[in-house]
Description:
By secondary structure, this protein is α/β, with parallel strands linked by helices. About 15% of the residues lie in helices and about 25% in strands. The protein has helices spanning about 40-50, 65-70, 120-125; strands at about 30-35, 55, 75, 85-90, 110, 135-140, 140-145, 155-160.
Amino acid sequence: MNCNSTASPSLPLTNTPSSILAPGMLRGVHHIALNVKDMQASCEFYGTVLGLHRLTGDEVPATLIQLVAEGKVTNFRTPDGTILDLFWEPDYTPPDPDPSKGFTRADHLAFDIAAEQMDAAMSRLRNADIKFKGPIVRPTGKGIYFHDPDGFTIEVRCDPL
């Protein structure tokens, strides 16, 4: 089944419009939240390996100041401004610890990179002993895949040259 399928929708709708939310109502992705088992390892990964900016002081959203102070949440900003929230949940465990067997319906988090920086990115990951799959070349571009400390798949990809 795909989005063009004529199968009945999971929402009980009658007179389904072409879109329920009017085009333009959604302004963008506000944040992405991930539950992490080891906050320190995850901070190292997202801050040092991926080079994301860690929010501190006045940058921390007012609604999360207390949780950040308690060490239960850490926030990062991606280069496009999307906020990545890491929630420390040490007792959450996936049904299978093997990251190749996805344990949520989420599949991966993809970061875009300039095509001319892909080789340097792969070299840096290799030098840091971070194993990755790829590069995999598709008509849509080239990507490499690896896992964060909790087994969530990360893609670094670029457009075709």
